Amino acid sequence: MQREAKLFAQYLGAKVDDKVLLTKYTDAIEIMKFSLSKKEENILLYLLKMPFLLPYIDGAWAFLKPKNGIRKRILVMNALIETQPQYVHFFLNQENIPFPIIKLIVRGLVAVLKGMIGILLMILLGWK
Amino acid sequence: MEIIDYIVVGSGCTGAMTAETLAESGKRVLVLDVGIENESPSEVNTDFISKRFNDKQQADFFLGKELEVLSETTHPNMPQQMAQRKFMTELTGRLLPVSSENFFPVESLALGGLGNGWGLGSCVFSANELKKVGVSTALMNESYKVIASRIGISGEKNDDASIFCHNNLIDLQPSIKINPAAASLYHQYRKKETYFKQNKLYIGRPALAFLTEIKDHRQAYSYKDLDFYTNEGDSAYRPAITIQNLLKKAKIEYQKGWLALRFWEENNCSVLECLHIETNEKKLFYATKLILSASTLSTARIVMRSFQKKDKLPILCNAYTYMPMVYWPFVGKRNIDQFCGLVQLAMFYDKNADHSEVAMASIYNYRSMLNFRILKQMPLNYADGMKFLQLLIPALFIAGIFHPADYQKQNFIQLQKSNSLTGDTLFTNYTFEADEANQIIETEKLYTKAFYKLNCLILSKIRTNAGASIHYSGTLPFGENEQLFHLSPVGKLYGTNNIFVADGSGFKFLPGKGLTLSLMANAHLVALNVLKNA
Ligand SMILES: Cc1cc2nc3c(=O)[nH]c(=O)nc-3n(C[C@H](O)[C@H](O)[C@H](O)COP(=O)(O)OP(=O)(O)OC[C@H]3O[C@@H](n4cnc5c(N)ncnc54)[C@H](O)[C@@H]3O)c2cc1C
């Protein structure tokens, strides 16, 4: 569970040695009882070994299976990060961001592209 | 056998107003209620931004100690799911069971009812609307004044929305300060006013049951942007404020824990059978007059049980569409300044140009409900989605459109036997068909175009399940002819001598606007009539 917490924390840009956050996550998963299917457990094991695949696979799920068990757990980590003061700058802008529209479009396109690559990967890996 | 002068069932917006009017008579008033309370209300002496930047325990506050906000078992139509508001809908699944494939009402058994979470949007109904509703315009206009002076309403005296919101019928406190993004959007409207007016669209500030100046013991709003979590200084009107004030002054009695089941009349007195929700004990209460203010659906259950007839009753519910949208000029803007999460602007579409069929859109900015709720709905990977939202949130508006509702023959409620605690379940059907469905689509199209004109990009158009508007009425229509399951124009239940209904059950039409101010005004009129009958 700790490894899973670290994987998701790192993926979302938080510190992997943030003990408070990691403990909050493991407690939360216990409270929430968000269980994973056998298939999801296997995929998670794979992702723990190859964390660089996560953004692509997550992007694919966002299109294909948004209610996937692993995504539910990543969202829990996201909500916990959002409610930690040290990460507030990920969510609230203290100043105007320069070139916001360009950044918005680029961000959107990159995310869509990752999703498409993710779909291909899932087909290749037989996860679809 | 103790006979009480007036028993009022329910302590929501309508129950509170009924009790207050009856209490003025000096007679004995008992409010009976299930009355679930928030056991651990949040004490907050900070604002949203300070909390987000400094409070290490904020997860408990924003997500709930049991992370209930992240739970997936919540009601499909319950908006703004906050841990602080969980009590509002507690026990409804068990005590007010509903069975339906297409209608998912939100009901409350709390002290103060749904009024604990209402968005405070207050609109008077026009003369044409009131005629269709089935109540007297002259009496309602007087009653609006009384209610406004009790609850306190703030708003703009003179803009394009004034006529739809308050029509200068009520005293107003100054409007809440507008958020910068909403001010800019409003400015766009002013520049393109001709287009809007040609299309019978009008934008202005909403009237809200929210104080901007001190009133009695209640404080003016302090712009802490925690409006969905707490009610500092009681600046927002919540019906529990009225109940508690009346109790403090010993003007009413209040007994909680009682679920009203059915009534009958004997020897010129009304008997109400109630079930205690903890002990399952049944008890009879006796009153000279019984006033039901348990909400449209709950009152219907009580009446259907009492008349022991298997009739299907009609039902009205506004269709509700919401549209998240991006207002380009505010993408990536700083968003840590003073802010208010309540409705910023109201847009009205006056289809027939005579105020008879208005569809209102409430326009909100988004911040204090946190980004993860939006992230969850986006088709993007979470890591990039988070960064995308950081840019988007300052520019995010949500418009909720209420469509007017007329009776449709396929929509009904019926009480059927079941093995629930009360021995029955409310069976319901609600669909939008034919002309009504087409009108909803037309209105959505018109609003989409209008927002586009204001430099907004609509992200999606979500036509919600029936029931999501949380505006219900019309189960026991007002009528001149004495018919079972109907109310007299002043709220007396036909077929009884001393039983009255003071909630929305009688309204035969639901304008596409906030209905609660009108529900309260009607409740006051029903209570006056009860006193007149005494
Ligand atoms: C999130 C949200 C936002 C809203 N925003 C707006 C808005 O901006 N503008 C607007 O006009 N409206 C709004 N509404 C709708 C508004 O809240 C309702 O129209 C209004 O509160 C209905 O009041 P009521 O007294 O009829 O019923 P309720 O508020 O449902 O009160 C019912 C009362 O009766 C009691 N009760 C029920 N059944 C029984 C029984 N069998 N025995 C004993 N007691 C019983 C309950 O405990 C409760 O006290 C909103 C609602 C919600 C949830």
Tell me what the structure shows:
The complex is a heterodimer of chains A (128) and B (534). The two termini of chain A are 25 Å apart. In chain A, helix 2 (19-32) packs across helix 5 (69-82) and helix 4 (54-64) crosses helix 6 (100-124). Chain A has one domain (2-125). With 128 residues, chain A is mainly alpha-helical. Chain A is built from six helices and no strands. Chain B is α+β, with helices and mostly antiparallel strands and 534 residues long. Chain B has 15 helices and 20 strands. Chain B has helices at 13-23, 48-54, 58-63, 92-95, 127-133, 137-151, 162-165, 180-191, 193-198, 239-248, 296-307, 372-375, 382-392, 434-453, 516-533, and strands at residues 3-9, 29-33, 98-99, 201-204, 253-256, 258-266, 269-276, 282-292, 313-314, 316-317, 319-327, 345-350, 358-365, 396-403, 412-417, 424-429, 456-458, 462-463, 472-473, 499-501. The longest helix of chain B is centred in the C-terminal third of the chain and has 20 residues, at 434-453. The relative contact order of chain B is 0.19. At the A-B interface, helix 2, helix 4, helix 5 and helix 6 of A face helix 2, helix 3 and helix 13 of B.
The radius of gyration over CA of chain B amounts to: 23 Å
The CATH homologous superfamily of the domain at 1-36 and 93-118 and 237-312 and 472-534 in chain B is termed FAD/NAD(P)-binding domain
The rough form of chain A would be described as flat
Order of helix and strand elements from N to C terminus of chain A: HHHHHH
Give the overall pLDDT of chain A as a whole number.
93
The total of beta strands of chain B comes to 20
User: Helix coverage percent of residues of chain A?
Assistant: 55-70%
Could you name the ranges of chain B where pLDDT drops below 50 across 5 or more consecutive residues? none
Q: What's the CATH architecture name of the domain at 1-36 and 93-118 and 237-312 and 472-534 in chain B? A: 3-Layer(bba) Sandwich
**What's the number of structural domains of chain A?**
1
Low-confidence stretches of chain A: none
Sheet of most strands of chain B: 7 strands, mixed
Instruction: Name the average pLDDT of chain B.
Output: 95
In DSSP terms (H or I, runs of 4 or more residues), the helix count of chain B works out at: 15
| Cofactors, ions, other ligands | flavin-adenine dinucleotide
Percent in strands of chain A: under 5%
The number of E-state strands of chain A comes to 0
Q: Regarding quaternary structure, how should these chains be classified?
A: heterodimer
